[in-house]
């Protein structure tokens, strides 16, 4: 049976079809408005708790209870909140182009907290969240332990045959402080805010709650930052 294109075209131009398409568009627009509002509320409430949100969702979606329930309902385990989190990253966060985290099926990827979130499209779509392998903060904490506390166990962790000189430790610490600073600035932090973020971490890591003074590690790190981070 031949398809009558003229008849189809005429049908699409009818008032009934126009009304149907108008209603579909209205509903789609309402859904989008609701979605954007949800993203904004999430941003206002959880933008500083992204790691906790990710860990909570991963725990929920990987639990035997959830997976079993989804299969019993006839579904490949669904993860709608992960897709919501990806939409949030699309709207508010920096895109990730680091090939270390991407693959053939990656559509888009974004940095989110200490993770990279990406959407992969093949025969279906899936959201994958990957922990960033080594954060600058972890590097800094290691070097703080080496440089300030001379922890011998860290010599082994860093494959040191023998301890470095104090000057060598200092230079390596400066290098990682500079890397960490550049990473924070790439996330749209100002120079002042990036330095404050580093110093807050150092303070929390080295502060003795029984003392009211700032630890010497904080003061030394602040001095190193001021001397080695260009304005």
| Structural class by helix and strand composition | mainly alpha
The geometry reads as elongated
Question: Strand-residue fraction?
Answer: 5-15%
Percent of residues in helices comes to 55-70%
Secondary-structure element pattern, one letter each: HHHHHEEEHHHHH
Gyration radius from CA atoms, angstroms: 26 Å
How many E-type strands? 3
Distance, first to last CA:
75 Å
What is the spatial order of strands in the main beta sheet?
Answer: 1-2-3
* Count of the domains: 2
In short:
The protein has 231 residues and is mainly alpha-helical. It is built from ten helices and three strands, in the order αααααβββααααα.
General description of the model:
This protein has 231 residues and is mainly α. The chain folds into two domains: 17-131, no CATH class; 136-228, no CATH class. It is 63% helix and 9% strand. The chain has ten helices and three strands; from the N terminus they run αααααβββααααα. A three-stranded antiparallel beta sheet has the order 1-2-3. The radius of gyration is 26 Å and the shape is elongated. It starts with a helix and ends with a helix. Mean pLDDT is 77; it is low at 146-163.
């Amino acid at each position: 049976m031949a398809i009558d294109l003229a008849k189809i075209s005429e049908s699409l131009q009818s008032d009934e079809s126009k009304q149907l398409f108008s209603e579909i568009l209205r509903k789609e627009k309402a859904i989008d408005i609701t979605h954007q509002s949800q993203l904004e509320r999430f941003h206002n409430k959880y933008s500083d708790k992204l790691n906790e949100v990710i860990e909570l969702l991963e725990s929920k979606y990987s639990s035997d209870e959830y997976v079993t329930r989804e299969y019993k309902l006839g579904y490949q385990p669904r993860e709608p909140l992960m897709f919501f989190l990806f939409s949030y990253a699309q709207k508010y966060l920096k895109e990730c182009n680091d090939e270390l985290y991407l693959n053939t099926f990656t559509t888009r990827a974004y940095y989110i907290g200490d993770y990279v979130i990406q959407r992969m499209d093949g025969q279906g779509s899936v959201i994958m969240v990957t922990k960033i392998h080594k954060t600058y903060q972890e590097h800094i904490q290691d070097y703080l332990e080496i440089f300030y506390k001379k922890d011998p166990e860290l010599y082994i962790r860093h494959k040191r045959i023998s301890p470095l000189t104090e000057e060598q430790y200092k230079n390596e610490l400066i290098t990682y402080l500079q890397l960490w600073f550049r990473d924070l600035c790439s996330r749209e932090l100002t120079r002042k805010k990036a330095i404050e973020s580093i110093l807050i971490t150092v303070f929390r890591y080295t502060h003795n709650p029984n003392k009211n003074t700032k630890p010497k590690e904080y003061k030394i790190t602040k001095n190193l930052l001021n001397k080695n981070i260009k304005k």
